[in-house]
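Deliverable D2.4 — example input (structure tokens):
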């Protein structure tokens, strides 16, 4: 193609993307008629700040000042109050010497303090570092040493973990069960002392550091910036039908990519965020019913725990308002999605991605009904390919390593290094295959492949088969050393109360449905599997 032909093709793509973006944002209510004076303010804010969280809260405060932004255990905050409080906190951060490019560590459960600290950091151009609320003291010390934040915003319950954190780091308590209003060094005190006037934009877009799950080692810091425009949001709105002024019950941890995504999505849509610091299955049902929520954002193990409630408890709650049950963060078994939809309606949307590649595919309720267990198809603007070990693209239906590219891919690890890249696409760390209809299926982690007697086995299909067996709650399969076969499969199984199943019975079930070499040679029954805060099984603990 000639140079002029290439330019023409790029122009056509750009125009098509712009028309797509406008259509989707209009349908979602993100672009809507407003008074000329408000339109000028919103337009001016976007031009000055770009697609930053600071823009989102500012425009929501202009357009919907008195509507509710956050509901947590302290009560409700309007968009206007949230905007002014985060302005004041940004001013106090600046007075502490925190400025553009500095780090602000945030170790908070799901409450307003997490939101306000994030917005304040964005307004001064600081990098927000999200810390896992399940960290032990040595992990927290190691991560803060590596990332070197200037301040640490934390819930008082984590105070005992800060012993190894450098004394030069400002300590700011975000939440205390005893109540911290006005206490010296608390978030509330800083907000009360700060100037709530609008600030000038920082020289560059703010950055965010979300830690990898650390299921196989020390969590790494994955850094990314805000996107250049709203195309990323439009591409996801096209797959998951979030709408302006929705009410979202965000049960997924805000420090994790999935909870954080819903915070980010709430800004352009001016959605109300309903937050509780700790997940409780019955309270989550009650929160959805009480708020008449449109959206429940959760990880699969939360849905599993809700469905495990007594039948009379499930029947006692009305979830008819729920339009979207948005799931991500760990593998979603097909039977779990079907069980939820059979009870509460076809509302499940499952997003597959990773901390590094952001999002890769979305499975809609239609996808999950037709092909249970699928991860779905890529949104517009996302490229996905499967490669073998030599970097060659594998044919449709064959298992390969998953590589993804989109505008939200991370910018590299803060401690140095990057994910493997092929053709400009980043490795997700998983392997999978694509069916004849273009749907992706995840077969396992690319570092979890078990070589047993010369045969390659990925645990996911064995886990899914055993999990479907009557009386089994959940299962994890790993490879362990074996003198004869090199490795053998070992299954860790959790049974329903009262279920009596033997290891031989499960082995026979696998051999009946899969190749014999895929049958676990050892089965250990546990009361529960070890998991992190987002529900991922910690297989390193099983080893």
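Example output (designed residues):
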């Amino acid at each position: 193609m000639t140079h002029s032909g290439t330019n023409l093709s790029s122009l056509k793509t750009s125009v098509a993307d712009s028309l797509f973006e406008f259509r989707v944002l209009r349908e979602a209510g993100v672009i809507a008629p407003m008074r000329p004076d408000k339109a000028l303010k919103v337009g001016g804010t976007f031009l000055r700040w770009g697609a930053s969280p600071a823009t989102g809260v500012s425009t929501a405060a202009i357009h919907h000042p008195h509507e509710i932004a956050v509901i947590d255990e302290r009560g409700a905050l309007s968009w206007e109050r949230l905007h002014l409080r985060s302005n004041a906190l940004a001013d106090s951060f600046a007075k502490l010497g925190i400025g553009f490019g500095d780090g602000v560590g945030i170790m908070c459960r799901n409450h307003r303090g997490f939101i306000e600290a994030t917005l304040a950091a964005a307004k001064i151009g600081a990098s927000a570092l999200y810390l896992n609320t399940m960290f032990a003291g040595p992990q927290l010390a190691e991560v803060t040493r590596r990332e070197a934040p200037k301040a640490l915003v934390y819930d008082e319950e984590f105070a005992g973990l800060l012993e190894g954190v450098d004394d030069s780091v400002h300590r700011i308590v975000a939440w205390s069960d005893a109540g911290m209003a006005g206490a010296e060094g608390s978030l509330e005190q800083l907000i009360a002392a700060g100037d709530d006037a609008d600030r000038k934009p920082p020289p560059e877009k703010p950055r965010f550091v979300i830690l990898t799950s650390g299921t196989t080692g020390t969590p790494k810091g994955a850094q990314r910036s805000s996107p250049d425009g709203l195309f990323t949001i439009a591409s996801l709105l096209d797959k998951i039908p979030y709408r302006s002024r929705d009410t979202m019950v965000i049960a997924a941890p805000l420090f994790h990519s999935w909870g954080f995504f819903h915070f980010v999505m709430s800004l352009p849509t001016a959605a109300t965020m309903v937050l509780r610091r700790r997940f409780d299955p019955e309270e989550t049902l009650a929160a959805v019913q009480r708020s008449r929520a449109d959206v429940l954002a959760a990880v699969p193990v939360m849905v599993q725990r809700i469905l495990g409630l007594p039948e009379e408890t499930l029947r006692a709650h009305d979830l008819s308002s729920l339009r979207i049950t948005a799931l991500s963060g760990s593998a979603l078994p097909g039977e779990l999605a079907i069980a939820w939809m059979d009870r509460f309606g076809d509302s499940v949307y499952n997003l597959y991605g990773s901390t590094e590649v952001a999002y890769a595919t979305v499975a809609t309720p239609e996808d999950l009904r037709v092909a249970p267990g699928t991860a779905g198809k890529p949104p517009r603007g996302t490229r996905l390919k499967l490669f073998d070990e030599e970097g060659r693209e594998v044919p449709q239906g064959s298992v390969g390593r998953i590589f993804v590219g989109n505008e939200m891919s991370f910018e590299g690890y803060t401690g140095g290094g990057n994910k493997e890249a092929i053709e400009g696409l980043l490795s997700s760390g998983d392997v999978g295959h694509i069916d004849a209809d273009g749907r992706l299926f995840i077969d396992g982690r690319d570092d979890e492949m078990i070589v047993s007697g010369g045969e390659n086995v990925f645990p996911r299909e064995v886990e899914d088969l055993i999990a479907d067996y009557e009386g089994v709650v959940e299962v994890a399969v790993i490879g362990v050393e074996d003198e004869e076969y090199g490795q053998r499969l070992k299954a860790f199984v959790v049974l329903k109360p009262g279920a009596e199943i033997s290891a031989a019975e499960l082995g026979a079930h696998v051999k009946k449905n899969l190749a014999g070499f895929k049958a676990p040679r050892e089965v250990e029954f546990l009361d529960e599997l070890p998991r992190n805060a987002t529900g991922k099984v910690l297989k390193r603990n099983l080893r």
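Residues 218 and 395 are 35 Å apart (CA to CA).
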